[in-house]
Amino acid sequence: MFAFAQSYPLLISISLIALDLLLWQVIPVTRRPLRIGLRLGVFLLFTWVLISAGVSPLQAAPWVEDVPRNLLATVLGIGWWLFAARTITVVVGVILGSRSGHTGRLLQDVLGAVIFLIAIVAAAAYVLQLPVKGLLATSGVMAIVIGLALQSTLSDVFSGIVLNTTRPYQIGDSISIDGTEGKVIDIDWRATRLLTGNGSMAVIPNSVAAKAKLLNFSQPNDVHGVSISVVVPAKVRPRRVLDALEKTLQGTRSLLTTPAPKATIKSSTLESVEYEASGFVSAMGQKVEVRNHMFDLAHRHLEAAGVVWNSDTLTPQTWSRQRALLEDVRIFRSLSSEEKDSLSQRMTAVEYLPEQVILGVGDSSDYLLVIGTGVVSAGICDGDRLLEAGRMGPGEVLGLEGLLETEDSTAQFRTLTSCILYRIDKAEVRSCLEQRGEVKTALIKLQRVRQQTRQSLLEQKPAVIKKGGFLSWLHK
Fold it and tell me: What is the reported pTM?
């Protein structure tokens, strides 16, 4: 075997390189330790073949008079340096890949290029015996020329390295770069690719992303801001608007209590004032639904506070609060305008203080109650516990028991803020049920929705809290 390696080193070397490429393609990527082990084994065998043939990659070929043999030794020496660079690059790639995943790809490519550059310079210095200083000086001049020509591209490359190292965002994060919002789908040498909300792809150069104002909506993972803005005429007293927006925030159960939601004045002019109500949710997917709900609640609470949006409002100014409120009550939407006028005249207002129980579990009321202003919390019993099932605002009703079934209330209704509720005698409602089938249908749907909400809430299992020690904290 030793004599064969001395006689046919080029043939054996080419065979080993071909074997290495074949094994690298055949062995699955999932069996990474086997691939790395075989590559190291083939490289060591390749090194042994060179040494057996009397070739050293650290010096020039000694057979100056034998031109073919000298050329063969030179080729094998250069091949050894390139093979070594490739092996080291693969090992470095495995280390970076296991530590930083996809974000380490760019750094891995740059390190690979540096390793190959070092291997080429070393081969030129040791195997070819070229003057490395002159070569480096010449390459330095060429590098300056190329750098000036590719200044923009190089800026993107090095900005990409900074972004992948500092990791202000990752694949899958929802971010905004200079006002362009989208989900990060790729980060490569030159640019960051975003999938925008309308389904198009935005390509942001890394140099722009590194300098621009960047918002990462996915970090931290459990706190995501959501806000709404409303513009109200300047003649409306700010306290009325802020009170309505604070009730909006209190009525949005999905908002986190910490950080606390808040209502503020954002800007003002002589004609109008812009207000903002903001809070936080625990999941990114909740933002759209919660934001839409906040807008609906804000409209209802502002209307309940008597805030007139503009002179072209659809609600006639001659309507009383009771009459205007019936327009928002779903079960009475099928009534004619005359029927609503008649029903509103028989509605009586009752005021409740904060944290006051309106209806307890098992209580029965002779009246249907319509929330005029404020926020009401609905809770259901789960054994000895009282679980909050939802929060209610202007235009929503309670005290439905006895209209379709004789059973008493299975929920507790409690005020979170000061409230005004309007009573409607259930005899009036039963009359509407007999005369209008649409009212009965709407009432059945409302009761069914509340029963399903109650059932799903009781069936929910509490999340299992995983215990972890110091090592798990370090891992996070």
Answer: 0.60
